[in-house]
Amino acid sequence: MASGNSLNLTVAHRGQSYSLSLLPDETLATLQARLEELTSIPPHFQKLLYKGKSPRAQDQQMTLAQAGLKDGMKVQMLGTTTKEVDGLSSIEAERQKRNRILRERASKAPVKVRSTGTANSSSLNYRFHELIPLSHLPNPESARALLQRLSDDPAIAHIMQKHEFSVGILTELAPHEHPQLLGLNVNAGQQIKLRLRTDRYDGFRTYREVRRVLCHELTHNVHGDHDNNFKELNSRLNREVAEYERAVSAGTHSLSEYDGSMYEPSASLEAEARGHALSGVASLSLDSVEDRRMKMLAAAEARLRKEEEELEDSCGTAGPSAVDKTS
């Protein structure tokens, strides 16, 4: 089929590359049918990412030219085979059976048993599809372990499911290659790169620091610039991570939709805020409990805003420190 007018595409999926040649007036449905032959992934389970675009299910009859595909373009495909989905369905059936048994036991026992809820097939798509440490850097096994911990983090999995985030590759940034950056999101989730290591390569940055950068970069799946929309969603993600962990700690294991209440920082932040408030207000004991709480939260949130501003300066996805997104 290759000719002077054909589109030669390279489609990457789970570490494999597939070369395809199609005509510009062929449809996305034709491309997806070819990909199904190569990967066994049905079209309705396929997600294509290229140059910041991701066609929707209703775009299948759009031509490749209309969809913005060009000769020589590289495409990242995310997706799950029918066999994998069937396997998850089997696991889900067993999970439901176990939960049913737990509910029956709970109805007869004096102690209430809480369930963590049920999964669904979307959990296979809304996740990090590949974890790739940099093999040329020291101790890549530890880097992979840190990436795996981020991928398995229940709070991160919670916000990815809730907001339907899908990331092709989660990998790392080498400090000597981009010393000014802590994170980079390539093509709205095709890749997310995080600074895992210290500048001197003598260890790794703290887990909570790296996870906070990850929340920042996940926000770039939706918003490219650090505008008010970005700040609102980024704050919400951090809030939902904290709420989820508080719920798990309290034993509820489930969260309702965010109700708009103010973000309550961790105990350490509250303690820090309390110290600032006590040092500046001699008559604090006369304030109400709610007044003291609001002052502590205001101080803690001011610190978080300052940290977020510093993080924006070290994010390569948008702003003055942007780097080549194709690297």
From TrEMBL:
WLM domain mapped to chain residues: 119-305
Note the InterPro entries from the entry: Ubiquitin-like_dom, Ubiquitin-like_domsf, WLM_dom
Q: Where is the Ubiquitin-like domain?
A: 7-78
Give the residue range of the signal peptide.
Answer: none
In terms of PROSITE patterns, this protein maps to: UBIQUITIN_2, WLM
Q: Which Gene3D superfamilies match?
A: Phosphatidylinositol 3-kinase Catalytic Subunit, Chain A, domain 1 (3.10.20.90)
Q: Name one GO molecular function term.
A: proteasome binding
**Quick one: where's region Disordered?**
305-327
- SMART domains, alphabetized: UBQ
Family annotation (PANTHER family): DNA-DEPENDENT METALLOPROTEASE WSS1 HOMOLOG 2 (PTHR47795:SF1), UBIQUITIN AND WLM DOMAIN-CONTAINING METALLOPROTEASE SPCC1442.07C (PTHR47795)
- Its protein name is WLM-domain-containing protein
